[in-house]
Design a protein that fits this description.
The radius of gyration is 21 Å and the shape is globular. It has 8 helices and 3 strands, in the order H-H-H-E-E-H-H-H-H-E-H.
Length: 224
């Protein structure tokens, strides 16, 4: 399979999200966040993308992008949107634990595919983020908490890669490939959440609609 250029998927998802926000569909992308705040966060991530700081320790090279700071601030605001009080320590610990589990699975899958990219489900780049997105929906119901969990999971995935590859590994937070994974996971989580709510709405309203149709049918027969 021909590999995709890093950043292509991220740019595509990013463009779709901006279009939805600008056309009044921001509730599909970032519920509870005002349009101008969402667009400002997107612009900040885009503007800070070229800024990178690199460090090396014990044979492990780490590249840290400025866009990660903007993303961290954005997901923190999204996670706190609609919260009337600060989350309990137990809830914060739960989100950290879930993000670690998702990141560990994500990073392990990525390293397995790097070692032998023959066996995969959909695509070697997609499988880890897609699974992390589904896990985020299973762990949390609020979109903001899902985004925060996936952001932390993306960071954990790079750390897991550094642990599994002791020497010569380059962990890159904020690279184009990193953004590919994060936005794939976020899009997967949002789509699964919307499908879940759509199925739930149909399951709740269908019996009511059927009962109403039945009553109307009996009324027509009585009138006849």
């Amino acid at each position: 399979m021909r590999p995709m250029n890093p950043g292509y998927i991220a740019l595509w998802i990013f463009a779709v999200a901006v279009i939805l926000i600008c056309t009044g569909w921001e509730e599909l992308v970032c519920p509870g966040i005002r349009k101008r705040y969402a667009l400002f966060a997107a612009a900040a991530c885009f503007a800070l993308q070229p800024v990178h700081v690199q460090a090396e320790w014990d044979g492990i090279s780490v590249s840290f992008g400025g866009s990660v700071l903007a993303a961290a601030a954005a997901v923190a605001v999204a996670a706190s949107a609609g919260e009337r009080r600060k989350p309990a320590a137990g809830r914060a610990g739960y989100l950290l634990l879930c993000s670690f589990i998702a990141g560990m699975i994500w990073g392990s899958i990525k390293q397995i595919y790097y070692a032998d990219p023959v066996f995969y489900w959909i695509h070697p780049v997609w499988d880890g983020p897609l699974l992390a997105g589904v896990l985020a929906v299973a762990f949390a119901s609020k979109p903001g908490q899902q985004y925060l969990m996936l952001f932390l999971a993306a960071c954990w995935a790079e750390a897991i890669g550094a642990v599994l590859t002791a020497v010569g590994y380059k962990a890159s937070l904020g690279s184009y490939a990193w953004w590919d994974g994060l936005l794939i996971a976020a899009a997967a989580a949002r789509i699964v959440t919307l499908l879940f709510y759509a199925a739930k709405t149909v399951a709740v309203k269908l019996p009511v609609y059927a009962a109403g149709s039945k009553r109307n049918g009996e009324g027509d027969m009585d009138g006849a």
